[in-house]
Write a structure and sequence with these properties.
two-stranded antiparallel sheet
Length: about 325
């Protein structure tokens, strides 16, 4: 008698769940929203991203100064860009700043993120202070450092023993160094936050097993923590790449592309062409080039790293 009662409990539970399930739905679809839920976001993305991108692509084959009707010129805008030495130089500067950002911010973010994931004393307070630059806009950060590094009234004027004449914006090497430093100061906390969350998700049993085997702190970091941060590292590097290729405010406020065109990146050159020279056709061509380059580089990173094959073992768990 007891066996019969026990065996009927799962069946009764299944019938109860079936009554709660909406008509026409299957067990595999329970908990998964339909396309209707994504429709508002899809429409928003189409209106504010896809449509403007198509318009920019069309305008890249036009000649337009902002007044009157655009005139179709074919590939003239693209041909001029290929022969423009400033454009070619801006691509090199853009790639250089992007590479510097990845090489500097990645190891720094990993170390700080792993440290912030621990339970040290005063860790929360120090982490909160360190994350303050993340709350500021790129414009505010650029204005702040422009004032601090002013050759006449800023820090370099009072520390000539370190900065020489104090004009850090007068040479290409120092100007690029300033741009890399300011970007690192502002965006490292964001990537640190990524690694902090990833480091806290590493199973503690791995570290416990390593301690039993006699592995020290450094061996645990290089043989357990770093491998477990691989997917987060790829995500962070993709964000750095796209951010480096599309950054604009920092160059506009700090160097304005100078000295000369030594720090003119592609995004800033797009601004000069479109809004200073009123050559919106060429500016659109540069913008489309940046979009295509960012997409291609991101896809290459995803493909080479195997990130596209990553599967979550927690998929569908509620």
């Amino acid at each position: 008698m007891t066996t019969q009662i026990t065996s009927t409990q799962p069946a009764a539970r299944s019938r109860k769940e079936a009554r709660r399930r909406p008509a026409g739905s299957s067990a595999a679809n329970v908990g998964r929203p339909g396309f209707t839920w994504a429709l508002p976001a899809t429409l928003f993305f189409a209106v504010f991203a896809i449509v403007p991108l198509v318009m920019v692509a069309v305008l890249s084959f036009m000649s337009w100064n902002g007044l009157g009707s655009p005139q179709f010129v074919g590939t003239d805008n693209w041909s001029r860009l290929l022969d423009d030495p400033v454009m070619l130089k801006s691509i090199w500067v853009t790639l250089l700043l992007t590479a510097l950002g990845i090489l500097i911010q990645t190891p720094l973010s990993i170390v700080l993120g792993v440290w912030a994931a621990g339970y040290q004393r005063n860790r929360a307070v120090l982490s909160a202070i360190y994350f303050v630059p993340l709350l500021l806009s790129a414009t505010a950060v650029s204005v702040l450092w422009r004032a601090l590094l002013d050759p006449n009234f800023g820090i370099p004027a009072d520390a000539t023993w370190l900065f020489g004449d104090g004009n850090l914006f007068g040479e290409q090497t120092t100007a690029i160094g300033v741009l890399a430093f300011v970007s690192t100061w502002q965006f490292t906390p964001f990537h640190t936050l990524i690694y902090q969350g990833a480091a806290r998700a590493v199973p503690q049993v791995l570290y416990q097993a390593a301690e039993i085997d006699g592995a020290g702190r450094y061996r645990q970091f290089f043989h357990i923590t770093l491998p477990q941060l691989r997917n987060s590292m790829i995500t962070s590097m993709i964000l750095m790449t796209v951010g480096g290729l599309t950054t604009f405010e920092t160059v506009l406020i700090l160097t304005q592309g100078g000295p000369g065109t030594d720090t003119t990146i592609s995004a800033y050159y797009m601004y000069e062409k479109a809004f200073k020279s009123f050559d919106f056709g060429t500016g659109s061509a540069i913008a489309l080039t940046l979009v295509v380059a960012s997409t291609i580089i991101s896809l290459i990173v995803v493909r080479v790293s195997g990130y596209d094959k990553m599967r979550s073992s927690m998929e569908g768990v509620s």
